[in-house]
Amino acid sequence: MSGNGAYGYAVARVRAMEPLLLDAPLYQRMMEADGLSSALKILGETNYSRWMSGDDVRYDSVLEAELVSSFNEFVSFVPDRELIDIFRAPYDFHNVKVMLKSVFKARSGGSMRYDLMTGLGAMNPDDLASRIESEEYGLLPYGLPRIIPSCVSIWEQSGDIVEIERALDRGLFAAILALAEAVGADGVVKWASARIDSENIRNLLRIRRFGFDSAEAVNFLHGGGAIAPSALASLVGERFGGWGRVLGYSDVGLVISAIAEDDDDFDALIVTLERTLDDYCSSVLQEARYSSDAPENVLAFLWGKEMEVKNIRTILVSKGTKSSPDDVRRMMRRGYF
Fold this sequence. Notes:
Layout: H1 8-17, H2 24-32, H3 36-43, H4 59-75, H5 82-106, H6 125-133, H7 144-157, H8 161-183, H9 186-208, H10 214-217, H11 229-233, H12 243-246, H13 251-256, H14 266-284, H15 296-321, H16 325-331
Helix pairs in contact: 2-3, 4-15, 5-6, 5-8, 7-8, 8-9, 9-14
């Protein structure tokens, strides 16, 4: 981590950027807009307008461009690059998944899907694609020179794409934790740990539907969180409504204890859990916002930016699906403010 006082300027830059973030009244206007085009017009009143031109606005491209711009701007003034790579690593691993699946399909006559790659990662997508196709993994970050060959081996031996996904997900969360530890700030490590706990609980709820036992469930969980994977896996056969009580010794356990389980509406439970866990990760960083030189402020802003993009996408997608405003509100993340 950079020395004491190194984040004074970075935090001042973050404070200057805060007014550009969207607030609840603007979200409300977008939700009440009459159709997608009207919602996009409201979005065009914000900083997102720089990525919007012409009548045929593709909002996924607009949202990606805004996030890329935010990451690039932060790289220019944040002392520890790892703080930005914590957010970019998931997109790098997404690109690795896309490329490996494409390579495997191409071997049986399928086509490569470069169009599914994103520019949000730390690695240039074209360079990453070239290295994977040519099997030149040596200079890739995040332990990928070890992880990718193991994925190739799994495919050659069993063709088990689920196991390949698990291997890459393990590598991703190990990378996030390593990046956080490299910064050397307790709050950054605590946030990375909260991300891992949140992902584990999401995974556990999803796989509970398949009737796995604890020995099988633990293979879908990642180390590095405040709750050991084995402790979480032991809950796979229990009702979700009891998880919060059992995990009450942890912060995330207290958070999910307020969620009521509805056996008749699993999809609604997943939506509520996703929002609650994202809000929990936001809350972990709140205390640092009172500090004028804490690196956690960088995490708070970038996480808030990702939640902003998620909220915008939720609203815009709802215009096509004709979702009710009440349903949309239940999916909205708290974000930065």
